[in-house]
């Protein structure tokens, strides 16, 4: 996750919908270097949103932690990728 605490999610595997535990997050599209400009998404009181850049559909799944997603491969951790 980013140092400032906003979870980042990506969709390299090309799924239609990503279930997330966060109400506020960033969509990066694909893993770098193929990522798109990072799009901030705030669900507010909604339970789903579509990334305006890549069209990935995100749905809130109660029970997931803010740093979790289904599929789990869609979580982007910048620090793990650099290791």
Could you walk me through the main structural features you see in this protein, from its secondary elements to its overall organization?
With about 80 residues, the chain is mainly β. The chain has a single domain, classed as Sandwich (HSP40/DNAj peptide-binding domain), CATH 2.60.260.40. Strands 4-3-1-8 form a four-stranded mixed β-sheet, with no helix packed on it. Strands 5-6-2-7 form a four-stranded mixed β-sheet, with no helix packed on it.
CA-atom Rg in angstroms:
11 Å
Along the chain, the helix and strand elements come as EEEEEEEEH
- Extract low-pLDDT stretches: none
CATH class: Mainly Beta
Question: Fraction of residues in helices?
Answer: under 10%
Count of DSSP E strands?
8
- Average per-residue pLDDT, rounded, comes to 91
Strand content: 25-35%
- Give the N-to-C terminal Cα separation: 13 Å
Number of helix segments? 1
Q: Specify the overall morphology.
A: globular
Report the CATH superfamily.
q5lls5 like domains
Strand order of the largest sheet: 4-3-1-8
CATH topology: HSP40/DNAj peptide-binding domain
Architecture per CATH nomenclature, i.e. the level-2 architecture: Sandwich
Structurally, the number of domains stands at 1
Structural class by helix and strand composition: mainly beta
Question: What summary fits the major beta sheet?
Answer: 4 strands, mixed
